Amino acid sequence: MEVLSSSFSDPVGYQSFEHLQEIPYMGDLLPKDLSAYTLEVVQEVGRLLIDYTSHEGAPSRRVWHQVTELLQVAGTKLGYLIPTHFPEKAQEALACLDQIRAIKLPKPPSAIPFTYLKGDGPEKAGGDSITTFNANVLFMPDDYTWFFGGVRRWEERVDEVSTKILAEDADVVSLQEMHTVEGSYALYEKLKGTYAYFYINIGQADLTQDPNQIQMNSGLFIASKYPIQGPEFVSFTAKGRQEGINKGFFHGTLMVGGNPFCGIYHTHLNPFENELACQVRKEETDSILSSMNERDLFSILLGDLNVNRESAEWFSSPLSQNFICNYPPGEGPTCTDTLGQYVETPKDLRKNVQEEGHTCDYALLYQKNSEANLQSRQVKFYDLNDPERASSDHQGLFSIVTK
């Protein structure tokens, strides 16, 4: 995505430098004793695998996800974060990674496209409008939330995130970067009293016996007061797409009062910032449009689309050419990399970090054989004047769709 930056004559004029000391530095989060860390991972995987073989069905599947998540995190720390940010430890880290890669996994559980959970909330009665809430909430495992977003672990934020969602009380909730299965179950427990239908662990991609081939799920999460008919997840296949995450789109027909209301689509597009990434995002968007064109109804697209609304890519993209946006003017950016930059910067150098932001989170309307109206507003999840209390590195988006 192309970044629209804001510069200041005083980079920290909006907050005290001491204020930023509360945010951890990446070097303090990564393991110091790599051999001890590796042994800990190997032993914990062994314990979990004993638990895995002693269960059947859903409990066994849940333990499997815990095992592969642990391996994926260890692989990222040893194979990417340490070699990239602390190259003097790269050789030792890669040697430890070889021990992780040597772990033998048993046969995985059978593949399913997503986990469907029934909530305790009642199905909502019909009407001529629906409301949606869309947000990238960065529920990633371990300290990934610091490494790749600059916010606290999901366990520390699940209460405040669920409180924000429940306060908006939207009919359909679509979240991105719900990559930790345990985090998805935890949020489900917070929301199940209000919502009737849940889809979590969408596009699971860790069902492999090769530790090198483990992928995260798509990160998509849906909670709805209305049933979704014909739910499906479609993986992206464009050459050059993001690896390590099974990106794709979830879609179905939203049934309101027993009748088809609209197509509901949810996605998270390629995040990279280069010419190939722009082409990948175009191909990913085209695959979504192809699905929408098979419907007689209009459709709503919700997600983190990683196309800055002020960029040349946006104006040439099928997103701007085919969809109605109605992003609220004057609301400001929906995402910031500033929080992550703090974590990557030693504490004594953070006064040099510049604030930046971009708009990449959307609710978009695709008209098809019926007239509909879309209005949106932003919901605050972060404030760069109070960075260590951010609930995410993205703002939320509440929308009303009226026929």
Structure description:
The chain contains eleven helices and twelve strands. It is of the alpha+beta class. It has two domains: 26-101; 115-402, Deoxyribonuclease I, Chain A, CATH 3.60.10.10. Strand 7 (248-256) and strand 8 (259-268) form a beta hairpin. Helix 3 (57-85) packs antiparallel against helix 4. The protein is globular, with a radius of gyration of 21 Å.
Condensed summary:
With 403 residues, the chain is an alpha+beta fold. 32% of the residues lie in helices and 21% in strands.
Secondary structure elements and their pairing?
Blueprint: H1 26-29, H2 34-53, H3 57-85, H4 90-101, E1 115-118, E2 129-139, H5 144-147, H6 154-168, E3 172-178, H7 181-191, E4 197-200, E5 221-224, E6 228-235, E7 248-256, E8 259-268, H8 275-292, E9 299-304, H9 312-316, H10 318-322, H11 338-344, E10 361-366, E11 373-379, E12 396-402
Parallel strand pairs: 2-3, 8-9
Antiparallel strand pairs: 1-4, 2-12, 3-5, 4-5, 6-7, 7-8, 9-10, 11-12
Helix pairs in contact: 2-3, 2-4, 3-4, 6-7
Query: N- to C-terminal separation?
Result: 32 Å
Name given to the CATH homologous superfamily of the largest domain: Endonuclease/exonuclease/phosphatase
- Proportion of beta-strand residues: 15-25%
Count the domains.
2
Assign the structural class, choosing from mainly alpha, mainly beta, alpha/beta, alpha+beta, or little secondary structure.
alpha+beta
Instruction: Give the number of helices.
Output: 11
Into which percent range does the helicity of residues fall? 25-40%
Largest beta-sheet details: 7 strands, mixed
Give start-end ranges of low-pLDDT stretches.
Answer: 1-15
The second-level CATH architecture of the largest domain is 4-Layer Sandwich
CATH fold description of the largest domain: Deoxyribonuclease I, Chain A
Strand order of the largest sheet: 1-4-5-3-2-12-11
Mean pLDDT value? 93
Number of strands: 12
CATH class of the largest domain: Alpha Beta
